[in-house]
Amino acid sequence: MKKLLFAFFICFSVSIFAQDVRIPIDTTVVTQGSVIIKGKRINYNAQTGMQPVFDDNGNTKATLYYTYYYRTDVPNRINRPLIMSFNGGPGSASVWMHIAYTGPKILKIDDEGNPIQPYGIKDNDYSVLDMADIVFINPVNTGYSRPVVKKDEKVDKKYFFGVNADAKYLADWLTTFMTRNNRWLSPKYIIGESYGGTRVMQLSHELQSRQWMYLNGVIMVSPADYKIIRTGGSEDLALNLPYFTATAWYHKMLPKDLQEKDLEQILPEAELFAVNELLPAISKGGFISEDEKNRIAEKMARYSGIKKEIILRQNLEMPPSFFWKELLRDVNGKTIGRLDSRYLGIDRQEVGTRPDYNPELNSWLHSFTPAINYYTQNVLNFKTDVKYNMFGAVHPWSFENENARENLRKAMAQNPYLQVLVQSGYYDGATTYSVAKYTMRKIDPSGKMKDRMSFKGYRSGHMMYLRKEDLKKANEDLRQFIKKSSESIGAAKY
């Protein structure tokens, strides 16, 4: 049973109104909890509520919903790491990693991540709360977070909804959080999933260059790199090939000699082919020779499970959306999932070039939505009639002057302590693991900081932690990364 430690306190100005008046601007609720991790009971407080976003003049621009978990048996937090956690979208709440990955409570799902009834939550035996405190932040219009405007004024969307604007106001918010909770001396980490990968790349430099908040680590989970993703360019088309290989292997669609090997034995072959042969071939466009085109198509067929003649009809340029529709078309007529290609879907018609819907996302919303609504109201004791936005209205989202990759490079160059970890699922077709690896290589073209970057792959999809085996492995990888990057390494200099 959770014990309520602090009642709501609400601070507001008579001249300021939240977009939804049922949401308080500044409020805190604290409950007590415990969880057994690695055989040891961990007692913690869960602090949840709303914290304002202030502009440079001290005016309230928004109020963000957050949940902050911290161990209660730690007398001194100077050496206690703090993880600041974001999801992506843009427009996605922090629900996904909160109640399925790193937090002390997770969904009731089966070992492969499928929803089961009755819905709800259970203890997370693998949470990293044993070695790090965690705060989950919901950007504006996600979760219960909302903009705040004066009466009869409109929301300043440009203040919130864009790559640069997003990082700026979140950095302001985090500075306030650090001061309120006395965490300035702690080793600091930011973790972001999907678009959150872009967010934390951008945020790393924003925190260091404008808030002078230096980090120990940046963690990107299934990161979206908008220099590549959905551009339709040669890199985008070629670098997805290893993901095709992984998915075809899972569905037993590869040639016998490849199918008999372990997944992680064949992926390096596919990666080398994608970079050394397929990328140059696609870049030649219509000027490629017929001999080379046929040779590349034959190899693509071998590593993707898609027939050579179909690849040739697409001039070697096979988008993932077509792959999701085509791979099992002649086997059972089912489609495969975008975010996790282990999932199957049923379309109205077997013909076509893309699936009707994303079966994996429907499955996840099936289990996450009732769980987070129950958890916030009944366990965290945050009471409200306001809708919890799993996905909120944040569009149009500005990608103008998006330079997140370069900004992470600058942050690493300016901070010798800063290390980077990338985690990806092999069956993620939205932000493929092979593109994530490519992003790592492009962050630091000089190669002088590559020893501070590491990659971990998992046999699951976009939210690789939904699979029990990978939940355990991914959290352990986080522990090792935090341990390595928070140890005393001497002066911060080259």
From TrEMBL:
Entry's Gene Ontology BP terms: proteolysis
Entry's SUPFAM superfamilies?
alpha/beta-Hydrolases (SSF53474)
The leader peptide range reads 1-18
Q: Which UniProt keywords apply?
A: Carboxypeptidase, Glycoprotein, Hydrolase, Protease, Signal
Q: Which InterPro entries match?
A: AB_hydrolase_fold, Peptidase_S10, Ser_caboxypep_ser_AS
Q: Which GO terms describe its molecular function?
A: serine-type carboxypeptidase activity
Q: Does the keyword Membrane apply?
A: no
* Protein's recorded name: Carboxypeptidase C (Cathepsin A)
- Recorded source organism is Tenacibaculum adriaticum
